[in-house]
Structures are given as structure tokens and as C-alpha cells.
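Team,

Forwarding the record for the chain on the shared tracking sheet. I've put the sequence and predicted structure together so nobody has to dig through attachments.
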Amino acid sequence: MDKSKILVVEDDPDILETIRFSLEAEGYDVTTAVDGEDGLNRAKQIRPDLMVLDVMMPKVNGYRVSQMIKEGEGSGNPSKRPSVILLTARNLKGDPDREKLFMNFSQADVMMYKPFEMDDLVKKINELLKR
């Protein structure tokens, strides 16, 4: 069976490297990008099964990248759009209306808040890729 392809888009090099290392250790084929524009370009090239997107990053933010991917820009096959996990330091749990607004706009599958446990991220990725 082919390895699942994951694209991680994160502008913090330490977080990016930690996620990449952890996911490769789980057996995933990981590609990285450092801003939203780079992430969109790489998504077109590799057609990932799942994307992990930082929200606050240069050029194009994670909400917009997710929306563009979910609406088919750069995903190639419209029937096989990648799952999307958003990572954000702006915790919206206390504001469920705003959280719902951002989730509806981005069409992301999951939103996780920084700081997060790597085990929780890996668990969520495994769940999404089994669907």
C-alpha cells in the first residue's frame, strides 16, 4: 500500500520540523511548505491526502488556503480533496460562533489549538485518513 501523503504548511521552522519528523516516524510521506502560497503550489504538485495548515502565516493565511483547496483549486481530482487540519494559536473555544464561522469559511475538517500535543495531532491525522 502506498504511504499517505501529508503536506505540512507552517512558518515556524521548529514546529514544522517537529511535525515533519513525527509524521515521518509514523510512516507518512511528508512534504513541507513555509507559507500559504508555497503550500498551494506544492498541493498542486503532490496532491496530498491530508494537509496540516498553520492559520497565521505569510502571503495566504491557512483559512484561505483550506478554502481554496476544498473548493478545488489545486487539488486536481475534485472527488479526492485532501482532509485539512488547521493549527492556530488564536483559541476560539470561548467563542463558538466565531469558531463555527472560521470553520465554515475554511471548510477545514478539524481545528486544533497551539500549543498541542503531538500525539493528539497524529491521532487526528490517523482518524481522518481512515475515513
